[in-house]
Amino acid sequence: MEMGRIIALGLVGVIFAVMLKKENPQISLMVSVVTGILIFFMICTPLSGLIGLLRDAAEKAGVSSGYFGIVLKVIGIAYLAQFGAQLCADAGEGAVAAKVELAGKILIMAASAPVLTALLELVMNLV
């Protein structure tokens, strides 16, 4: 049922944006951005439930909460970077979209550095 509401909101937003594009492109862009943000907020509740489920599974598996937090941070950065890049691309700013994607990749590398160093230390201790 949730997906039906998301699709309906998306379609309404697209129809309004297309209708306004010729007469007022700035408002059309704002309708697209607001539609995307509303869809993002609609998925926050199911997403928080999923994170709780994954957190419980990680605890049962004995995964360190620090590593689990890093993985969640990396996933969050990836999704937000993609969302931001798509908004920029929708606005016709492909160059800015590419920079947002690059920034997301760099931030993912920075966030995952502790996991990488721990992995390298583990490998070095085995050798």
TrEMBL record:
InterPro entries according to UniProt: Spore_III_AC/AD (IPR025664), Spore_III_AD (IPR014211)
TM region(s), chain numbering: 27-54, 66-85, 105-124
Protein's UniProt keywords contain Transmembrane: yes
Pfam family, one: SpoIIIAC
Keyword field: Membrane, Transmembrane, Transmembrane helix
Stated name of the protein: Stage III sporulation protein AC/AD protein family protein
